[in-house]
């Protein structure tokens, strides 16, 4: 089965599944492989559950005319997504960055949907499987596509750009994320900049933060760009007015009051405002789009529970985002604070040094009781209270729940620190 033939079937069915446990009627099941499973073995089961077709890459499992054999299922999915992207011919904006990708994507989608029928990445499905699924979720009613791209090693963004072929793009920031895979901060910058390279080579258009010296330097000789800053030197002048606790900013005498905490979210909001401005969306509409967005999924959520105000930012963490979160936390009003900080993953040989830096920064927080959780934080040299595991923290806090406190919960996804909400 070639890509064009597969696309014809897809246009009839309009639904893709990669999980045989979640089959819907008339879907096309792609039998992907993982470290611990072989999707080919579930092809027959998928048909029995209602799938119209199953795509496999091992001939022994082709037991029906509705089981389609290809050389490699993952490659077939990616090629189908690229074929569909070309078939639609719509403008697509891709974004990447070390921190804030998903929040920024949601903000951009909220703004652009005021003018266009948009389709955006669902959640953080931003990898070599998620990007194809995002593209295949678009149809003839989609006027503008928004595709988030994640990466933890070199050439990954380049590969995803080859699938999505974005016309527009932006990078939220360059930070200390996935240092192990990228090979340090310089590797992060090179890896994320692959989006810039694609857009420049393909005559695409870049949106950027002119306050970021890395971005402004990389794009200084590029003409097809549109940026923002707080100094009045870029295309859009956006001022941060406050971040205690929610970000408030000003654009052309219009005040925008968001539901996002932390000055670090200024850049994410400003990027969405900048993009909306370029596409001639009226400022009142941009304001309404930003102000209607409420964070979810453990990302900068404010939760009022009993007498406490909880800042739940436990979806993920790296040294850059942890540093930003603590800086913001230190500036919040209130005389009683508690910080629960979990290990940061994928730091490789930098793990010990980066966890020690965060511990030392946390020691300087005023009016704040700090708890460090995880094997990396447990190995730091600090006077702060440390716990080797979440379970140890949980058992300790059962009878020691803070009251009348502002509580920050921050850690990598693998730590799942949001579990402590049951105790709080």
Describe it.
With 424 residues, the protein is α/β, with parallel strands linked by helices. Helix content is 35%, strand content 23%. It is globular. The chain contains 16 helices and 21 strands. The protein has a 9-stranded mixed beta sheet, with helices on both faces. Pathway: Cell wall biogenesis; peptidoglycan biosynthesis. It is an enzyme of class 6 (ligase). Its EC number is 6.3.2.10.
Strand content: 15-25%
User: What percent of residues adopt helix (DSSP H or I)?
Assistant: 25-40%
Stated plainly, the CATH topology of the largest domain is called UDP-N-acetylmuramoyl-L-alanine:D-glutamate ligase
Number of strands: 21
By CATH reckoning, the class of the largest domain would read: Alpha Beta
Number of domains: 3
- How far apart are the termini? 55 Å
Cα shape: globular
What would you give as the CATH superfamily of the largest domain? Mur-like, catalytic domain
Strand order of the largest sheet: 8-9-7-10-11-12-13-14-15
| Low-confidence runs of at least 5 consecutive residues | none
CATH architecture descriptor text of the largest domain = 3-Layer(aba) Sandwich
Q: Which structural class fits the helix and strand makeup?
A: alpha/beta
Structure described in brief:
The protein has 424 residues and is of the alpha/beta class. It has helices at 3-13, 43-48, 73-88, 101-112, 130-136, 156-164, 179-182, 185-192, 194-201, 213-218, 265-278, 283-291, 319-331, 351-363, 375-378, 390-397; strands at residues 16-17, 28-30, 33-34, 37-38, 53-56, 67-69, 92-96, 118-120, 144-148, 168-171, 205-209, 225-229, 236-243, 246-251, 254-261, 301-305, 308-313, 337-342, 368-373, 385-387, 406-410. The longest helix is centred in the N-terminal third of the chain and has 16 residues, at 73-88.
